[in-house]
């Protein structure tokens, strides 16, 4: 949160739109065999042969989805990519390409956009995807990022939200709620900074939570893991809005009910400590906190033995008849209807 | 430009993000055989079999790319789609799907978004494409539209910017400059309206120009026309920034020069009249005015006989050796170097 007053500032209009695009995209390499033509024409050209094409898109708006007061541009670029790759992973598909469109107000110098594109480049290398196109323009206010992700899959491997069966188990990758609490920590530090700009924050006790918020990862590894375990999920979704919201999506589309067990929810020890410090119930955070970008999926009960020993996966509940509804079973064995309290971008 | 004070206003937060998406997308039908799964999951799923996939994306920002003072939302929705389909047409490919992401500030009621989506629906029907996904969120300021268009083509049919040869002819579809002058007329009427809101504009002499600005069409018909004429362009681009800018793109990427003939530039009679009224040179407008969304392409000189009688196509110049440069040959037979003075979104 400390500004370097001597940083270099090159105005965007010096370069012009085409110069800017050339400058920002010069480090992008084409690695995917399905990319026939990348940046530089009216459109990119892709060849997926006998594979199916999976496509998803997201819009990130400054002041709505991110706050540059604590979100470094490099992390923002990385996260913007990850969020979209997570949607492809949630189809049990392999992400292969993205397009990146950016609108910026004049207050951003070239150096800021370079930081942002460093993050995008880092993510594209980490996930072995090609940046194949986009658009760069000015905005009236703030920074806007629009990313479209493309992936490939065999038709028989694709997993939708609507395939869960009444007796299936509900499984989640990784742990829950940490990204949300990371955001709470950052918001608090921002307020402290506003009161006393010389205060040096000590964030050692929050590193995992902050990393989950600022540098989330897409669980593209889960597809490979499940393939190795010979498990095909019956339904799948990624956790962006919050666990409860995603469970309800699966239940509605699959026409099933669900029992979710509080005692099974995977949470990091750091989350427990910080929830105590903030006097927030960690179960509420695990259920409603969004932006974990873990995968939530259902499997046939017969597949339980194949996944039970895996440290990446936790069975957190089971599906039921639709008429039984969607419930959280608490540690005290009380049944509470599950409601979607996840983050809603329109209720600002 | 007259406001209906009694119009219904439903706030977006009443519906919530998922309710809004359901409401706005309920009229979208799936018609393309390549659309396996449309809106409603983490991603859409497409199947192009042995065809190649063509993909392009554009970001439209209120106050930068459009002004709602004279751009009705229905037209804006239509135009936002057309602009993207034009990029697919410029690859000599057939547009098949789009994703649509929207960010709006709270000042937009539901009814405004319905108007916008009416225009998007109209365009998707007119061009027989499926709306397969998107994102809806709030913005800090104004309206932001991000569209990604997907198309299909046989590999051998795809036309890039870099295939023009030294002896090729330069051809353009339709006429040039009208969209730009339509914008000038609308800007003038906006200023008149600001001075005297009771003034009723008489726009009869400007209908064609205004339509070219407010409701442009993508030349998806040209691909079929050229196929019928058995002509495959050697290079192609669409005219969004302006003819001169697009010619320079083709020349640079194809490593050729070009002579463009002033007397050959196709302009509408209405453009000539209005240019006189505004005291602007119509050639300057034809060369530098953007947003015509016509196709500019090169063909082998042997194909001249096949296209010469077609009223949709005009030969406006020929390519040369790269060392000869890029020139406009005026009616007075003077040779002037061609410069890209097209609209630059970053020079606001």
From TrEMBL, chains A, B:
Gene Ontology BP annotations: thiamine biosynthetic process; thiamine diphosphate biosynthetic process
From the UniProt record, give the pathway where this protein acts.
Cofactor biosynthesis; thiamine diphosphate biosynthesis; thiamine diphosphate from thiamine phosphate: step 1/1
Recorded hits in Pfam families, A to Z, give: AIRS (PF00586)
Positions contributing to ATP binding: 134-135, 161, 240
Name the InterPro entries for this protein.
Answer: PurM-like_C_sf (IPR036676), PurM-like_N (IPR016188), PurM-like_N_sf (IPR036921), ThiL-like (IPR006283)
Q: Which reaction does it catalyse?
A: thiamine phosphate + ATP = thiamine diphosphate + ADP
Extra remark = Reaction mechanism of ThiL seems to utilize a direct, inline transfer of the gamma-phosphate of ATP to TMP rather than a phosphorylated enzyme intermediate.
Q: Which NCBIfam families match?
A: thiL (TIGR01379)
Q: Which HAMAP family does this chain map to?
A: TMP_kinase
What is the designated name of this protein?
Thiamine-monophosphate kinase
């Amino acid at each position: 949160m400390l500004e370097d007053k001597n940083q270099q500032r090159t105005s965007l209009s010096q370069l012009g739109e085409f110069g800017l695009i050339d400058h920002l995209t010069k480090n992008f390499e084409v690695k995917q065999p399905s990319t026939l033509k990348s940046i530089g024409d009216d459109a990119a050209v892709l060849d997926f042969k006998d594979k199916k094409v999976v496509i998803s898109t997201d819009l990130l708006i400054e002041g709505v989805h991110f706050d540059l007061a604590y979100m470094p541009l490099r992390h923002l670029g990385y996260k913007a990519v990850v969020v979209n790759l997570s949607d492809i992973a949630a189809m049990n598909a392999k992400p292969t390409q993205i397009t990146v469109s950016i609108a910026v107000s004049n207050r951003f110098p070239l150096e800021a956009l370079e930081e942002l594109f460093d993050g995008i480049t880092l993510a594209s290398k980490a996930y072995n995807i090609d940046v194949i196109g986009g658009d760069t323009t000015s905005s009236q206010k703030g920074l806007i990022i629009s990313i479209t992700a493309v992936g490939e899959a065999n038709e028989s491997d694709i997993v939708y939200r609507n395939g869960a069966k009444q007796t299936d188990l509900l499984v989640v990758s990784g742990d829950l709620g940490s990204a949300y609490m990371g955001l709470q920590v950052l918001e608090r530090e921002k307020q402290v900074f506003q009161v006393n700009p010389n205060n040096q924050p000590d964030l050692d006790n929050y590193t995992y939570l902050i990393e989950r918020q600022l540098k989330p990862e897409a669980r593209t590894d889960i597809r490979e893991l499940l393939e190795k375990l010979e498990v095909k999920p019956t339904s799948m979704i990624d956790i962006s809005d919050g666990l409860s919201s995603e469970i309800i999506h699966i239940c509605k589309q699959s026409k099933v009910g669900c029992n979710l067990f509080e005692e099974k929810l995977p949470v990091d020890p750091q989350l427990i400590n910080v929830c105590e410090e903030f006097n927030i119930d960690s179960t509420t955070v695990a259920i409603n906190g969004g932006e974990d970008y873990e995968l939530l999926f259902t499997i046939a009960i017969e597949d339980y033995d194949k996944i039970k020993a895996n440290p990446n996966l936790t069975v957190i509940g089971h599906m039921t008849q639709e008429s039984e509804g969607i419930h959280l079973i608490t540690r005290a064995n009380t049944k509470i209807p599950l409601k979607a309290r996840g983050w809603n971008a329109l209720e600002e």
